[in-house]
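Hi L.,

You mentioned the student needs an example of a multi-chain input paired with its predicted structure. This one should do, with 481 residues in total across all chains.
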Amino acid sequence: MNWDWSAVGDFMPHFWDGLLVTLQALALGSLIAFALGLVWALLMRTPTRWVRWPVGVVTEFVRNTPLLVQLFFLFYVLPEWNITFSALTTGVVAIGLHYSTYTMQVYRAGIEGVPVGQWEAATALSLPVRRTWTAVILPQAIRRVVPALGNYVIAMLKDTPMLMTITVLEMLGEARLYSQQHFQFTEPLTVIGVAFILISYPASLLLRALERRLVR
Amino acid sequence: MSADTNPVPANELNANPPVDGAELIRFEKVTKRFGDNTVLDELDFRVDSGKHVTLIGPSGSGKTTILRLLMTLAKPDAGTITVAGDRLFPAGEKEVREVRKKIGMVFQQFNLFPNMSVLRNVTEAPVTVLGMSKDEAEARARELLDLVGLADKCDERPSRLSGGQQQRVAIARALAMRPQVLLLDEVTSALDPELVAGVLDVLRDIARTTDITMLCVTHEMNFARDISDQVLMFDSGHVIESGPPEKIFSDPEQDRTREFLSAVL
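Structure written out for the whole complex:
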């Protein structure tokens, strides 16, 4: 195997483009996963069965089918109904939606972990339900689940290469394109491999530190 | 009773003190079951305004359940509960909300909000429920925290305080809503022995200087003797004996009361 530093140099401009797309997809996908997961978790706590039941069915469906199938469905099937988004938007929505069905379970555990005495104190002070959620329950619940949510961000980072399959040129997409054009596979694939570990390993160290601080 | 006829600083703490001695709380044939276990069995009792009533009795006799029913943390299975003439049960959600504002509660486990400063624990409900301005609520909260001896802890997080200090904050928090009734649920049971006195002193102070009606479940018989106008002895969901503390503690009529007291005193 020959290692060619000049190929690394040639690839780097493409690498930066791919990195930017990967980080965009990760940031936006995380936002969707965090926000939508909280919405699911709260809807699953409404007293009406007619809300809980459909939310339960949809989220179970999304969680138990492969992300890759969902990507293909959104990218190839929706346009047949004249619903079209850019490849990146489709990818971000798919990954955010998919992971929201995991974060909802994280939120649920966080909410259930708030001691019942907190609800009782809020009732004793006549706090309205909405205020009880926003000022008392959610701040405590979310603090507990930040490390678990962070783990899903790392998992999402490692799933971003799937977006390549719907033509998004994130890191792996750029590497493959370069490889096919120059018949040099080792250098670009190594570069992005190193890039993944340089992002995800410090991130997981950061999360561990955060966990020690936030979770008693 | 209007403010000018009432010389005690109670007006500071109590928005609308009702006429002293009028009936404030009434339970009629209240039944509460947990599964097969009947905790309260067609219980009747009343508490007059301004009185300090202590509920004593063996654990599981339903004392805490009474407080929880009043605070609407639990619902009775049958019977009626009224507070200051307004129905608390059975009643609609809107009525319950109004009646609930007249009642404050201090819990065994304090239940302070750990995500808020001490000061914000005390101002949160006055601002969001009573619509008080932030400045006014903070000024009052500082007074109340001063009353419980914690004026210097306003900016601390509850977790930095001792159990006794946390419980005193919880008392200030309950008083900030100007309740007519204060429910005290074994407020010293979770405290280290050396911290009990500080909390009881604060409560004695409040009992002496205000006309807030107090309903108190406690195992501190000396405290009960000190502050109570009336002691109710519970057993198996019934009031088996009631009277002034001097009578109950020194010359109870029921054997069951005598047995209980000799076990705890």
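You could point out the following to them. Chain A touches chain B at residues 115, 117-118, 120-121, 123-128, 131, 135-136, 139-140, 143 (CB under 8 Å). Residues 33 and 100 of chain A are 4 Å apart (CA to CA).

Best wishes,
N.
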